[in-house]
Design a protein that fits this description.
globular, alpha/beta, single chain
């Protein structure tokens, strides 16, 4: 079983080597999902690959963002360079980049967790595309991982430690629509680590605890998981060293049948080096939230009292050279390193090097006396640049002539009442009701309106639909239903004209701007839809603790929250996408269909929306804006970074 360590800096690479990891994953200066890590120049990447290979390790390079049409040649040039310098694999999210890599290069491809593969069906699809390994979605329990791993003929990788996104990876648009920093482009602004209120609940309601998965190692080993992955390319070299060393030891103990898998001292070190609270992750736990605070505070030590400027508390595990931080409520007051003179038998009695008011404090251990030794060990490893050459890649021209068209109107509905309200204006209905499929289909048939069944947003169980026409949200659903007439929702992240799988109709990503839409459309033969109205989904989560209602951020912006029959929670945009005045431009681009999402809307409003789009009545635009409350053009003008 491979232990795979995160590397975001040169020092972190050295730390992974010193800590005994079997492999590392790291990124270049572009196309990586951790844009704000230091990352590596081409020459340093080549040097890192040589260094790890000399140590008997493997190096995987992240190319795990969505790729715009105009970036594809550069992305392929980057992958070609990685192939030339001997990278062991590339980690890929974009399903358009994937086939182009397979056509041109020999380098293995690993499916990023950003692809959100979560069932055996998704793994089968990946295998058919030539993918050598799948990094599974982090929302799976041990039993689900076991079923997938035991039936898979390609490698399976599982996250075992580190930060856990609130939303399914690759499915989050919150940061994107909050300020243009797309998580799918490596620029997440982490809105999940901010404070919110929902009803009587307040706090960091979307903030998860870090995964601490050592207890799951024996079962993951038994079921044949190929690789255990540590999250943390934005974290310190000390974190990389300690997680690598301690998890490597745990794997060896599990292999030898030894218990415990981790010592008290090892756990203490992991808690000190980065700790915003731990859970077993969804591997073992249903609830993984830690909503009291979002940042790392180190190991909790409990209360302390300050009297006349002197701090008193039980000594516990503390020793000279350790560092502590003091909090009052949510506010960090300060921190300092302990000297031998601060330790009095079983107590700490210290005078901090800064003024402290008398009172009660909460103390965390944030530094360990061994960290300087670790830093010295890391510093002894040398990394040298090596030659790396990118060759220009030319993609064959495939510009299509898309004629101006009267775009069809396709309505997302979730009730019979809304279905009947929009029927006079619809060319197509995407029915997302939990029941009443047969009645909805009959109503559409009576008016010669196309009926398409929307499959569950995501399901951890495998089941094919019995409908002839379906809308899929994941490659897993596509694999189960590919013999039917398949439509793809915007959750499929179609960012370029190369994107697989090829569907009867795809919905282009709402993160694309006008110019980028034109680029994709002018190179796509198949039917394309663009979302033109509705509250886009910002997050999809397995979290069972967030109630339905309205999530309110610290600016007073309100986000609807609802839960689906599968148990997943959906957070919707505070603002309606409203593209009525851009319909002439979309028609001129040759957009085949406009997506109009009126789920959970009043039938009267749905009918008014349908009438306005059918008649293209611009006189209704102001009234429509008033009725919706908040509306915008989304990313149509500016797009994402």
């Amino acid at each position: 079983m491979e232990l795979l360590a995160p590397v975001g800096t040169e020092e972190a690479l050295k730390a992974a080597i010193a800590g005994g990891a079997d492999a590392v994953y790291l990124g270049g200066k572009s196309f990586g999902a951790r844009h704000f890590a230091s990352n590596f120049s081409d020459e340093l990447l080549a040097g890192a690959i040589k260094l790890t290979h000399d140590r008997g390790m493997r190096t995987y390079v992240t190319v795990n963002t969505l790729i715009k049409e105009g970036e594809m040649a550069d992305a392929l040039s980057f992958v070609g360079m990685l192939d030339d310098v001997g990278a062991d694999a590339v980690i890929v999210q974009d399903r358009g980049l994937l086939p182009l890599i397979k056509e041109r290069f020999s380098i293995p491809v690993h499916a990023s967790t950003q692809m959100a593969v979560h069932t055996s069906a998704g793994v089968r699809w990946a295998r058919e595309q030539g993918i050598e390994r799948v990094i599974l979605a982090r929302e799976l329990g041990l039993e689900q991982v076991r079923e997938i791993a035991e039936s898979s003929s390609i490698g399976i990788e599982v996250f075992i430690h580190g930060a856990l996104c609130y939303c399914f990876s690759g499915q989050c648009l919150f940061s994107s629509f909050l300020g243009g920093r797309s998580g799918n482009r490596g620029m997440c602004a982490q809105p999940c680590r901010k404070s919110y209120a929902l009803g009587k609940k307040e706090g960091y309601l979307l903030s998860t605890a870090d995964t601490f998965g050592i207890g799951s190692i024996p079962e993951l080993m038994r079921c044949g998981v190929t690789s255990l992955k540590i999250e943390g390319r934005m974290r310190s070299p000390q974190y990389v060293y300690l997680t690598s060393k301690i998890y490597k030891k745990a794997i060896e103990r599990a292999k030898n049948g030894e218990t415990p898998l981790i010592t008290d001292r090892e756990r203490e070190m992991l808690e000190v080096v980065f700790n915003r609270g731990f859970s077993g992750g969804y591997l073992t736990d249903q609830e993984v939230m830690q909503t009291a605070y979002p940042e790392s505070r180190g190991r909790p030590l409990g209360p302390a009292k300050v009297e006349r400027g002197r701090l008193r508390m039980p000594r516990g595990v503390l020793d000279a050279g350790d560092g502590i931080s003091l909090y009052q409520g949510s506010e960090k007051v300060g921190g300092f390193d302990l000297k031998g003179s601060d330790l009095d038998g079983t107590n700490v009695i210290a005078s901090p090097p800064f003024l402290l008011k008398d009172g009660d404090y909460t103390v965390y251990k944030t530094k360990d006396r061994e960290l300087p030794v670790i830093e010295d060990l890391i510093s002894k490893i040398r990394l040298q640049e090596r030659e790396a050459v990118r060759r220009a890649v030319e993609l064959p021209p495939k510009r299509m002539r898309r004629n101006e068209t009267v775009s069809e109107l396709s309505f997302y509905v979730s009730s019979l009442a809304v279905l009947k309200a929009v029927l006079p204006y619809a060319d197509r209905v995407y029915f997302d009701g939990a029941k009443q499929d047969a009645e909805a289909r009959d109503i559409c048939a009576s008016e010669s309106i196309e009926f398409v069944k929307v499959l569950p947003r995501l399901s951890l169980k495998e089941s094919a639909s019995d409908h002839d026409r379906v809308m899929v949200n994941t490659v897993d659903q596509y694999e189960l239903n590919k013999k039917r007439t398949v439509y793809g929702s915007y959750h499929m992240n179609t960012f370029n004209s190369y994107t697989l799988p090829k569907l009867h109709q795809c919905t282009l990503s709402p993160e694309l701007n006008q110019e980028e839409l034109v680029h994709v459309l002018s190179r796509t033969e198949g039917r394309c839809e663009v979302m033109a109205f509705g509250r886009l989904e910002l997050m999809l989560s397995r979290d069972p603790t967030l109630p339905e209602g309205t999530l309110v951020d610290d600016r007073g912006v309100r986000y609807p929250v609802h839960r689906d029959p599968e148990g997943f929670v959906h957070i919707l945009h505070s603002t309606d996408l409203l593209m009525l005045d851009k319909v002439p431009e979309l028609r001129a681009m040759g957009v085949d269909s406009l997506g109009i999402d009126v789920r959970r809307r009043h039938p009267d409003l749905a009918a008014f929306i349908g009438k306005s789009f059918r008649e293209l009545d611009m006189a209704n635009l102001d009234e429509l804006r008033r009725k919706c409350g908040r509306s915008s053009l989304g990313h149509y003008r500016k797009g994402v970074f």
